[in-house]
Amino acid sequence: MHAALLPLIKELTTITELGSIHSVLSWDQETYMPQGAIESRAAALSLIAGLCHDRHTSQTFTDLLKTVVDIQTGQPFLADLSPQEHRMLQEIHRDWRMANTLPTDFVTRYSSLQSQSQYHWQKARQANDFSIFAPYLDKVIAMTRQKADYFGWQYTPYNALLDEYEPGATTTALTPLFTRLKEAIIPLLHTIQKKDAFSALPKGPYDKAIQLKFSHFLLREMGFEFDHGRLDISTHPFTTQFHPTDVRITTRFNESDVMEGISGTLHEGGHALYEQGLDPARFGTPLGAAVSLGIHESQSRLWENFIGKSPAFWQHYLPQLQSAFPPLANVPFADFYQAINQVKPSFIRVESDELTYNLHILIRYEIEQLIFQDQIPVQELPELWNQKYEEYLGITPPDDAHGILQDVHWSMGAFGYFPTYTLGNFYAAQLWETLLSAFPALEQNIQNGDLIQVRGWLKTHIHRLGKEKPAETLMAELTGQPLSEKAFVSYITKKYNQIYGL
Amino acid sequence: MHAALLPLIKELTTITELGSIHSVLSWDQETYMPQGAIESRAAALSLIAGLCHDRHTSQTFTDLLKTVVDIQTGQPFLADLSPQEHRMLQEIHRDWRMANTLPTDFVTRYSSLQSQSQYHWQKARQANDFSIFAPYLDKVIAMTRQKADYFGWQYTPYNALLDEYEPGATTTALTPLFTRLKEAIIPLLHTIQKKDAFSALPKGPYDKAIQLKFSHFLLREMGFEFDHGRLDISTHPFTTQFHPTDVRITTRFNESDVMEGISGTLHEGGHALYEQGLDPARFGTPLGAAVSLGIHESQSRLWENFIGKSPAFWQHYLPQLQSAFPPLANVPFADFYQAINQVKPSFIRVESDELTYNLHILIRYEIEQLIFQDQIPVQELPELWNQKYEEYLGITPPDDAHGILQDVHWSMGAFGYFPTYTLGNFYAAQLWETLLSAFPALEQNIQNGDLIQVRGWLKTHIHRLGKEKPAETLMAELTGQPLSEKAFVSYITKKYNQIYGL
Fold first, then answer.
1. Which percentage of chain A shows pLDDT scores above 70?
2. pLDDT digits over A123-152, tens only?
3. How many domains does chain A contain in total?
């Protein structure tokens, strides 16, 4: 590391460590914290978040940054930087600019509104009554709109929101891809819907303790390092990292559906391998952090779907699953494989299949754009939501709990986040094609239970790099293609043609 | 609260919250943290400890304190304070003075030496080789001696160390009590040793999962609130609190000794009830914190021994224990009660019985005094240790792992800490006498499984008060007696006379 950068990096590492401490407190809250401690924990989280923000927006930090980059443009002053250091400074400047763009007063008010809004969203979902949530959603939209203005935008404020989660993403770039995706998958869905449904897997019971053991087993097979991580149980599965040496997954188990826990484990396991694969020597800097949400999601999707719902994977692991779970003992391979890949439009995004999942995302993407073009009042959102489900998926949500109230994202102001899920599918498909060319025996190896090859390649070509390159550049160089829906459409078409004999 | 105190209290609460965050990180390290994360966790702990210390020793804090007390004497300026506020300010001033007395450079070097010393103590204990630890112990003693000088002392530097853990404690006050204790229990021990040993409990196996369930059950019976706390497993049992609404116990279970886990649970449960009983509205101030280590230990001892090794307790709980653990099914009550109260001199303090336990403490107390009167070089300590075990307990440790290397305390510089364990026994005996007079039906109630009465009384008369009164005043007012060995000697003599038919 260039000596002139060290004081800045030291301070940044401290800020990152405070962020990790915040994550430990959050992880504990979701896993082991006794319920009655919620208020004192909220105070602790807010204290640490404040310390982080204060240090990141302090004059000290600005002064440190000013010694090495032009504070207006982010252009480094030093001539003898490595390309990685050059890139690192750009990312540090971007993060600093975003943290400093929002006035502290705004951050405090927004954070308080997020808490209230999330609370009322939960109540609204429980009561199945959108009107409880509507006034908060209205305020969250107004403040998020204001946030977009602080960040600055071109064409539509929504671009500022997209860019926050996937640097560089714009509606101009995404819409054509998403439109072509829609044009490919809706007809495919219609064709599939004319076919008979497959029989479902037995409803268990699948012992939860054995499910937990099986998840541990699968994670070890993937290369997850248990001396640098854990698996626990929580209401909503998530992955969090305090350091590359401490990456924690949570999942949940359903006694009547063994695949829910397995899919969750493989999905979060994919995220976790990314975090464990980051370079610990670069901890605290952008070079030691994941490059974007889209790429992160590509890792989880690759493991959950491309590998974890493939015939090769289950040719190896089904016998072990069957010996762990008696209800599956007599299910033939072909029936199992069809059952886990059954296409069926559903109301709930997180329960949907690999094909229709993206339609759930497209609906949200289209509605979010309308919201930030001021073209739809909040009270009309449930109807619009239901219309789009009817149009794209052919089903009408029976109520708002199965419709617009299902996701937490909007209550937290996380508009622009959903598209990264579909970008994850696109990137995963491009990576899968690349892996298949790099390793002609890949599927055979997976069928032999060798998953380490995939993990090794991802670690070397993606994880270790951190933010060395922007997401799009990284993926274009690695896969030889710009970001596009093509690989995904080709993968999904081929897969379902085969499964449904089209 | 007096309005003039609010800015100081706000800052103090933040410092306390940072301390709680440090405790969350430590708890996680001892319970769930993956092994390979030790280095990054050490960095996080050190960051938070530094932030705490910096804020407590900052000019800002001093300025806040100066507005309300004379910074030299701690005497409050304000005339219209409540007695509680007056007392609170004295305690705040004491804590501030102690934090500020040690130069930051000294704190850093001491903390680093503690880590190294603890590491080498562990290695020495594993290798059963005192010489690995000796040079570090020598340095720790030298720095602890220096610490005593910073704090200031009368008669012996050891008084400064005693005062750190038990405010107001001095050798002048303690030695006569400890001497009379020794004169009472050594002859009693000799008499008991002439009697036949009782038969031990069956060696199990006692299923660990069932032990965990039984510990949960006992904690609920004591009144431990599981919505404000948890029980987990760790190598060494401990209790930690982040807030009165989040108090966490750990214990450990032994498959061949069911009483190890039960004693640990009752002991830590006693500590935990104290922490859960503090007033949450006073969190962050000395009025919302436990008054002293001696009083804390009185709570754990009361539950572990006075209640948890009493006939009344087991008349109620033995049948439930027996139905949970088949190996105990045919043990008659009298045999069980004798077995759990068997007196037998042992090498290891934490495995010792209620009678000999205090001899382990007296040995450490006497050696600590010699150390800080510069009357014994480090290399002669093992021999002195063994001589004292021979003299007081009639047994000679076979090696240093069963002798001077058994406790972690000295490696961390915690000299002056051990006596608080015996003070805990003294206070517990005084409280037990008081409880018996306050509730003539107490033992009958315990025999009926009503433990809530004890918890309620302790909460009202001790827990809720925090540091409203100094430990000695609190106990003298509550029990009608000054701190003394008398109640304990009377309790233990009566108990063992009865058990051994003396």
1. 100
2. 999 999 999 999 999 999 999 999 999 999
3. 2
Chain B residue numbers with beta carbons less than 8 Å from the beta carbon of A34 are: 226-230, 245-246
Task: Dump the DSSP string for A337-360.
Answer: HHHHT-----S-GGG--TTTHHHH
CA–CA separation, A202 and A211 (whole Å)? 15
Residue showing tokens 């304190």: B65
Tokens of A431: 């990576």
**Residue B336 domain-assigned?**
no
Residue B148 pLDDT:
97
Chain A to chain B Cβ contacts (< 8 Å): 95
For chain A, the first-to-last Cα distance in angstroms comes to: 56
Residue A278 C-alpha, separation from nearest chain B C-alpha, in angstroms: 14
Q: Give the separation between CA A24 and CA B332, rounded to whole angstroms.
A: 48
Question: Per-residue pLDDT averaged across B221-232, rounded?
Answer: 98
* Annotated active-site residue in B164, B268, B275, B297: B268
pLDDT of residue B438: 95
CA angle A58, A59, A62 (to 5 degrees): 95
Instruction: Give the whole-angstrom CA distance, residue B461 versus residue B322.
Output: 35
Tell me whether residue A485 is one of the annotated catalytic residues: no
Nearest to A46 by CA among B41, B56, B18: B18
pLDDT in tens, B117-158: 988 999 999 999 999 999 999 999 999 999 999 999 999 999
Can you give the pLDDT at residue B281?
A: 96
Q: Does B47 touch chain A (CB under 8 A)?
A: yes
Tell me which residue has tokens 């008084």. B159
Q: Same domain for A39 and A143?
A: yes
CA–CA min distance B318, chain A (Å): 30
- The residue among A115, A135, A154 that closes a domain is A154
Quick check: B202 pLDDT over 90?
A: yes
B235 band by pLDDT with thresholds 50, 70 and 90: confident
Does A496 fall in a domain?
no
Q: Is A230 on the interface with B (CB under 8 A)?
A: yes
Per the structure, the complete domain to which residue B125 belongs is given by 3-165
Mean pLDDT of B369-377: 94
Q: Is B143 helix (H, G, I), strand (E, B) or coil?
A: helix
Q: What angle do CA B50, B411, B381 make, to 5 degrees?
A: 155
Last residue of a domain, one of B165, B195, B220: B165
A449 lies in some domain: yes
Does the beta carbon of B46 lie under 8 angstroms from any beta carbon of chain A? no
Residue B154 identity (one-letter amino acid): Q
pLDDT digits (tens, 9 = 90+) for B242-292: 999 999 999 999 999 999 999 999 999 999 999 999 999 999 999 999 999
User: B17 with B139, same domain?
Assistant: yes
The pair of structure tokens assigned to A118 is 């999330």
Q: Do A71 and A148 share a structural domain?
A: yes
Cβ distance A485 to A177 under 8 Å? yes
Residues B18 and B159 grouped into a single domain: yes
Q: Which residue has the tokens 């391979």?
A: A333
Disruptive mutation site among A13, A24, A233 for chain B (greatest number of B CBs within 10 Å): A24
Q: Which of B55, B245, B250 to mutate to test binding with chain A, by most A CBs within 10 Å of its CB?
A: B245
Intervals of chain A under pLDDT 50: none
Same domain, A238 and A324: yes
Q: d(Cα B300, Cα A297) in Å, to the nearest integer?
A: 50
Task: Answer yes or no: do B152 and B277 share one domain.
Answer: no
**Are A237 and A304 within one domain?**
yes
Q: What is the pLDDT of residue A236?
A: 87
- Choosing from A268, A304, A354, A472, which is the catalytic residue? A268
Whether B160 and B229 map to the same domain: the answer is: no
Residue B279 in contact with partner chain A when CB distance is under 8 A: no
Q: Which residue of B has its CA nearest to A243?
A: B40
Answer yes or no: is A369 within a domain. no
Indicate the pLDDT class of residue B1, thresholds 50, 70 and 90. confident
